[in-house]
What we know:
Blueprint: E1 2-7, H1 11-20, E2 28-34, H2 37-47, E3 51-55, H3 63-73, E4 78-83, H4 88-96, E5 101-104, H5 109-131, H6 133-157, H7 162-171, E6 181-190, H8 203-218, E7 224-227, E8 233-238, H9 243-265, E9 268-273, H10 283-294, H11 297-300, E10 305-307, H12 308-312, H13 325-335, H14 338-355, H15 359-380, H16 385-395, H17 404-444, H18 452-459, H19 463-474, H20 478-496, H21 501-507, H22 513-524, H23 528-540
Parallel strand pairs: 1-2, 1-3, 3-4, 4-5, 9-10
Antiparallel strand pairs: 6-8, 6-9, 7-8
Helix pairs in contact: 2-3, 8-9, 13-14, 13-15, 14-17, 15-16, 17-18, 20-22, 20-23, 21-22
Amino acid sequence: MYKVIIVDDEAVVRIGLKNTINWNEHGFELIGDYANGREAWEAVEQHKPELVISDISMPFMDGLELAGLISAQFPYIKMIILTGFDEFEYAQQAIRLKVSDFILKPITAQEIRKLLDRVKAEMDEETKHREDLGRLNSQLKASLPLLKERFLERLVAVGLGRAEIAERFAYFELPPAPPLHMVMVVDIDDFGDRELLSYEHDAEFLRFAAYDIFKETLEQDNALLFRTREERMVAIVSGKENESLLVEHAFSLAEQVRYHIEKYLKFTVTIGIGRACTHIEQLPDSYKSALSVLDYRFLLGKNRVLSIMDLEGKPSMPLPPNLDWDRKLASAVKTGSIREAFQLIENGVAELKSSLAPIEACFLQMQKVVLSLMNSIQELVVHDEEVSYDRQMKLMDVYGFKTLDEIEIWLKEIVRSVMSTIADNRSHLTNMQIHRAVEYIQTNYANDKMSLQDLCRHVLMSTSYFSLVFKQHTGETFIEYLTAVRVAKAKELLHNTTLKFYEIAEQVGYKDPNYFSILFKKHTGTTPKDYREKQIKESGA
Length: 541
């Protein structure tokens, strides 16, 4: 059942629609009917119906204004406008506001039934489309090869944590990774004679053919293969007992790929072989060294298999296995997860210890952590520049420690302090915005056009987040708070002036004195007239 409300200032229309239509029979539950747009908007905010059927001409708030509010905040709610105005301008406005239908009065009960059936069919189709998990699953399966390529590219380009690697390997049904790994990168030099203009349309086909040879050569070896966005071919070769055997094996596979592409496709490739690594998390180091060795093509020529070990030898400074814990730590600091932040610090320091990296390499890693934390402070602690500067200066103390254990303790204290400052800054900013909102209401309550959108634009907040924090800070919604302010101002005017009731209504933001009177009694338990008489009696006594 879809929830529906009716909005029309003519009681006879509302009663007619309620009594002549069997709503449940057409798949709808009628949850309310309202005489004006303001009341309807309050109901929409509270009940969030799936369908609103509204007249266009009503007091306090007309149908198009109501449609505008619904379109802005609840775009999934369908709206049907009923009107006696056969004017193109109204139809244009309705289209702009994404109104589902624009129906001219008078409309018969039979036409309403047909309209409901049609709208329900549309809503059923939308629901089916969203919930068609089988269709989504098929799309996912069709995307798996590309998703697998992007995962492997992330694995070698930026590095991933051990837990995520295990999870993704299981998801893509990849074989478990042996302990020794090496990355090979194949780059097409050019297409030889095929570079002529008449062969330009063959470029994609030739790349595909080269990848087919690449795949046929290495897949039987259980290598992990993918293509990069730069049209390079990459293989992760694993599984030999020691580094020498792995290098020899990678050279053999690479030479086969180079030879067969030149022989059968008549163009050449250069292949770079990176450093061996013992942990799969270190693949970015092997990948970067494989890319680096490709640069030597400029000196040595095309159509070669090149190894970083031959050209640059072993690195003089082994890099820590986890190269991105500084970024993860900064992310944890921003999101306020102190437990996660401390765990990342402990894991990072433990990895630095186990890597047996020289002091220079450890301080290089700590410099990245310090820079990431500095960036977090600059981004999030904006209201107190002195505090921000002090935090950054304290981060420079990292160079005064002599052991990683000292750095771990110091870093935890810094992170705790930074996170506390960021939390205070967020709270300060929110308080300032709510204070500005309250001032805006107190200043502009007499504006009968004041809306939540106007207020949010003034304080630079989204309507959904503002509604949440405003209720948390004041205990009331925007409408409740605005109404309370207006009623309080009306009480003052009733007590201290001789203004007529319609004048007071207008001064507190209500153009319709009857609606003001109803609202005043709803909030005070008495009419404006009775309230004034009571105040006069009490003053005389």
